[in-house]
Amino acid sequence: MLAEINTFLSDLIWGSILIYLLPILGLFFTISSRFVQFRYFFKMFHILRETVRDKEGHISSFQALMLSVAGRVGGGNIAGVAVAITLGGPGAVFWMWVIALVGMATSFFECSLAQLYKEKDGIDSCVYRGGPAYYATKALKQRWLGVVISVLLMFTFGFAFNATQSFIISTSFEASFNLPTWITGLALTLVFGVTIFGGVRRIARMSEVIVPIMALGYLLIALVVIVLNLDKIPSLIVMIITEAFNPSSAIGGGIGAVIIQGAKRGMFSNEAGLGSAPNVAAVAYVAHPVQQGIVQSFSVFIDTIILCSCTAFIILLSGAYTPGISGVQGVLLTQNALIEHIGPFGGVFVTLALFLFGFSSMIYNYYLAENSLNFFSKGNVTVFNIFRTLCILLVIWGSFQDLSSIFAFSDLSMGLLAIINMIVIAILYKPVLQLIRGYERQLKEGKVPVLRYNDYTEFNFDKETWKEIVDNINDKKD
GO cellular-component terms in the record (predicted)? Predict the structure, then answer.
């Protein structure tokens, strides 16, 4: 009975509410900001190149970006795209691109808000905390809403998703290398434990190393496939666009199924608007909130336009995919396609990529949960250590437990989180537009933008935190 209720509510939230709410609000944010994600796309490289660093060791904009990509890029980039293509055909890839380009604006808005309303960590003064719980509490003055958001984040990402990731990784290694799940689970738990007990800065440093390796490795293997099939690329692009508007008869549900599958893949993959990425965006040490908004919108581009497209091209350039055949999907379809392109190594590579993608997601998931805990505990070391121990135990437990029912319930809680977050940022869109105008005004004046915190006295953010950041940056200029 509970499972049926959960399925009904999950289908209602994702299939009847978010499938429309996310793209509509994303389009609204895009138009109201005058297409900010495209106007400042190349500005992101300049921001990262001139990342603010200081002797106290604050987390940089690049580290925050990598931690965010660690969460956005996961097993879904390998398995989820394959499912979308199986159920929605090649045209689903086009709609996946569209939802990502619009979602970049949503990510910009929520991450700029997270930066503006961030506060200092209770344990480490060089670390900042922020996210939907913080800007809902401060900007809307609704602490109860912040509590609900924090609970949903903690359960969804800290407990359920991490235990499930552990199960996926362990069973994948068992299938590929005949390695018992408990051995993989122990190894995974050890590395995970060392990472999270090192605090937020160690988590950021680990992501700074792992994410570029996994992303570039997967991109490289996709480029090899593309080069081997270079003559087929133009016709493949034409097929994707054509199938997006005129799907073949083999695709059940017609164009509606194509759009829904592409949109779902885009939403699940890039997380724009779901309320998770702003928690990470808040930790970056930047001179102006808009800077991290620009950078975080790029993480959506990396996840969907680049890495999800890699999987789509690997599958569609092979003979492993047959339209209308739904028997082989997910990781197996991607593995079969890569084996066809480069031989047996392809299957091993997918398993290793799944491990890196999954582990980086676990680090990211834990950080979201820790940030939610901080909303309640405000830096209580004992509480944090107990929580970390519980998360570690759940990882090893999850390595040999099929948690599909828990994962299904997590989809429901994440959907609720997304609805709450999207409503909140829709209410708070005007402060973001003011931040954009202030940022652009300084650029026109030929200045390096910093947050002029006294210009926003009507906003209930931590002005002392921003005064310290801006004063520190100005001192370095002198």
Answer: plasma membrane
